[in-house]
Amino acid sequence: MYLPKSFHETRIDVLHALIHDYPFGTVVMHTSDGLVANHLPFELAGDTLLQGHVACGNELAKADGAQVLVMFQAADGYISPNWYPSKHETGREVPTWNYAVVHVHGRLRVIEDKVWLRGFLERLTDRHEAAQPMPWHVNDAPEDHIEKMLKAIVGLEITIDRIEGKFKLSQNHRDANRAGVIKGLGERAGLRDDELTELMQQAEGRRNG
Question: Which Pfam families match (predicted)?
Fold first, then answer.
């Protein structure tokens, strides 16, 4: 990943927070047929592991020991040069795109232990059901149905060898331009613009804190 110094994020707590808030990752792996990509929800277990699951028919289910890249992406959005005060002063600005991503490089382990798998699915489901008025739990399904589903999937565990983040949030611009971008995003109020604004404000807070 191209990582200009202005956008290189190395703080582990910040990188982990993005994975927690945006857990739907893209797993890229090299196979005999070339590169393949799969899209999966993950849980971060401690500081060194990603955990997930796939159907038995997925190529990842047969890739024990493979080196993989997992990409997590937060909100992103187009940035108009009209939002920069400097554009109105000099005209020397161009459009760009703001975003935040985390790349995890590691080795895949396939897990067929049904006890491990059920425990993982319970944790994953409980987390994402927590905001529901009446949360669904794995045990709400008939036991024979659960057993059938468990036979159709395997667990995945990725040991994190390297983690890197790119937070391109107008850090290479002066304060007035960054404020202009935040104002512009607020006025546009498009899909995920509020999330991108929050990311920029968090970055500002870390800069000033």
Answer: FMN_bind_2 (PF04299)
- Residue 180: pLDDT band by 50, 70, 90 thresholds? very high
φ, ψ dihedrals at 182, nearest 5°: -60, -40
Q: Which amino acid is at 9?
A: E
CB-count exposure of residue 45 (10 Å: 0-12, 13-18, 19+): middle
Query: How many Å from the N-terminal Cα to the C-terminal Cα in the chain?
Result: 28
Count CB neighbours of 39 within 10 A. 9
Kindly report the pTM of this predicted structure: 0.94
pLDDT tens per residue, range 108-159: 999 999 999 999 999 999 999 999 999 999 999 999 999 999 999 999 999 9
CATH fold of 5-76+95-171 reads Pnp Oxidase; Chain A (2.30.110)
pLDDT, mean of residues 58-73 = 97
Please tell me the distance from the alpha carbon of residue 196 to that of residue 74, in angstroms, as a whole number.
Answer: 8
Could you state, in order of their start, the residue ranges of all structural domains in the chain?
5-76+95-171
